[in-house]
Structure formats: C-alpha cells, structure tokens
Amino acid sequence: MSTGVRVALVALPFAAVFLVLRWIGGGEAERWRERVEPHFRDAVVGVDEDALIVVAEDVATAREAEARVRGFRDALEAGYKDLLGVPRFERMVVVVFPDVASLQAYAGAAARLDRGAAGNLHGYTDPLHGAVFVPRDAIDVLRHETVHWFMETARDVTVPSHSPWLSEGLAQLFETLDPDAVPPRPPGIGRLLLDGLDVDRLIRIEDYGEFLLDGPRNYEEALALCGFLFERRREGLQEYVKAERRTASSRPLLFEDIFGARGEPFRRELAEFVARRR
Ligand SMILES: [Zn+2]
Predict the structure, then answer these.
(1) What pTM, to 2 d.p., does this model score?
(2) What is the Å distance from ligand 1's center to 263 Cα?
(3) Which of 42, 53, 80, 161 would be a feasible disulfide site paired with 29, CB 3.0-4.6 Å?
(4) Protein residues within 5 Å, CB atom, of ion ligand 1
C-alpha cells in the first residue's frame, strides 16, 4: 500500500468526525434562526461563537447586541456570581426581534402563553434552552433579560422559577449596571414613587400572573425591596437567593428566617430607606 493511501485511510475518519462535529456545532445557530422564522422572516445568524449566538435582522444589529451583552455578562460574572449564581449554560443565545409585536407572537407560540400574558412582555427568557429574546432598540431590556438568564439558568432544574419579587427586583436593580460607562455604573435604584412598601403582601405573591395584575406597583415594590436588601443586607440576600435556587418550599418562611422581617429593626430601616428615595 502506498504511503499516500495509508495517510488517507488514517486521516479520512478524523476528517469525517471533524466535519460532523462542525456541522452539529454550527447547526445550533441555524436551528435558532429556523425556530424564530415563522414570526421573524428576515432573521439572520449574525454571531455564531462558543459563548454566544445572536440572531437578528442584520449582522450590524447582531454585532451591536453582542458588544453590549458580552461586557454586561462579564461584569455580572466577575462581580456578582456569588449573588446571582453560576449559569448552567456556557453559551447564551440572543434573538433580537425587529419589534415588540413579533417578539410577543413568538413568545406566545413558543411558551404557549395566552394573548394577555404575551401582550405584557417586553422581553423574555427561556431558561430551558439558555436563550433570551429582546426587541430592537431596547438595550435596557437586553440587560434586564440577561440578569433573568443568569438567575434562571443557575437554578436547580427541578425547582420552580424564582419568586417574582426577587426575579423582577434584581433584574431592575442590575439593569443599571454599566461596565462601559466612565466611571463604571454600579447596580442601583433611582427615585421611587412608592409611599410605602407592604413586604408581607409582596413576598407572598408566588405566581407571575398575580404579580402582573398590579404590575406597576409590584415591579416598583420589588425594586425597592431588592435595592434595600442589596445595600443593607447583602449577605442575607446572597443566602436567600441561594436557598431559592434549591428549594421551592415555604419561601415566605425562609425570608423571615434569614432577614427577621417581622422584627421592628427590619421594618423601620426598610421604611426609612423607601422614604429617603421618594
Ligand atoms: Zn423581568
């Protein structure tokens, strides 16, 4: 047998395996494009890399989303992994829809949401597949959903989603984080419209549909409570998030255990914190 034939016999199987692996790896981005295509006809794969896939209406839009999400994700990973958890996926999938209507149509179909629930969405995270969906021109939504992506994919798959107040509070708190600003902007809260915060009521809402019924109030109370815990009870907050990642039972009891929320000092300090930000 000639040397050339022998080399070919050895090299060919390796080449075949390499090509199949490349096809499988490269196929994931294409599969995402096909998945969203019924609601997003001109979708293209703009970024297809180990850590990130971006599907958008053109490559420039995808590259812009890539730049934003990479810096933000790195900042979360570097500074807040202990608090938010370690994501289950190394690769993040981002789909930038041309508008809110196409995003809502996709989310309604993919997550089988009813029209009322889908109509409330401005962004959406799919923790099972490690994907986030945002409308174009909404960079704060991309940050917000990246926080959800982090928390929801760090969660034990057998445990239900985080409590709505915790999820929405931390997503709003962290969407202000901007590692590219000079100086870098930390997570935080601005002015509040609230004239008080009923913490017992808020932490008992465990259903998203119920949370959304009084959306504006609940989102703002969630932000205020998470802002307070982040600034004044950081260690307890970390312990609490970690506990929710692993167990769904008696979350209000867990909250009471960790923060002593029924005690006078907690209530007084929280009320002062809210009043000072009005
Ligand atoms: Zn959210």
Answers:
(1) 0.87
(2) 30
(3) 53
(4) 168, 171
